[in-house]
Amino acid sequence: METNPFDFTGLTTETLGVGAPWFYALDLQVVTDIFGLKEPTSGHEEGHILRPVWDSSGCWCCSLNYDDGDECNWKPARFSKDEEMALRIVEKMRSEFPYVRIDWIGTWGVSFQVGGDVTSVIWSPVVSADTLPVAICVAALLAKGKVVTRP
User: For the chain, how many structural domains are there in total?
Assistant: First the structure.
């Protein structure tokens, strides 16, 4: 039986674990391929005594991990787990892909308009996922011609 390459259902923190490497890889791909940002190469002036420190783009966070000592440990924002962050992807994509279709029919379905005109709209394949953030992340990357693989 052939699997649907656009079906990303079953990929949740409950099934993969909160710190699953797949979520980190997806978030990293979003930051680099959608937002066009590389990991910050320098530290920051503000220390992280009580809270994480974000870079000016809001896409990279230096987390509270005292085991890392004074070294900055930049991580991509959690686009794949946070709806508000995922909606930032839709806004970022708007200039290149002005329309997005988001549906809920037992699972989330997300697709971006990738071409066409008023009379004939061309949509990217609909990505299905159990969570809206994962559906948006994967659909946005696929609309930009990137490859996303299931774990």
Answer: 1
This prediction has a pTM of 0.82
Token reading at 31: 């930051």
CB 62 within 8 A of CB 53: yes
What's the CATH code of the domain at 63? 3.30.2120.10
In the predicted structure, residue 79 carries a pLDDT above the cut 80: yes
Angle at 98 between CA 96 and CA 104, to 5 degrees: 125
What letter would DSSP give residue 66? G
Q: Kindly give the pairing relationship between strand 127-129 and strand 7-8.
A: parallel
Residue 150 falls inside a structural domain: no
For residue 58, give its domain range: 7-39+48-143
Is pLDDT larger for residue 30 or for residue 68? 30
Angle at alpha carbon of residue 120, lines to 138 and 128, rounded to 5°: 20
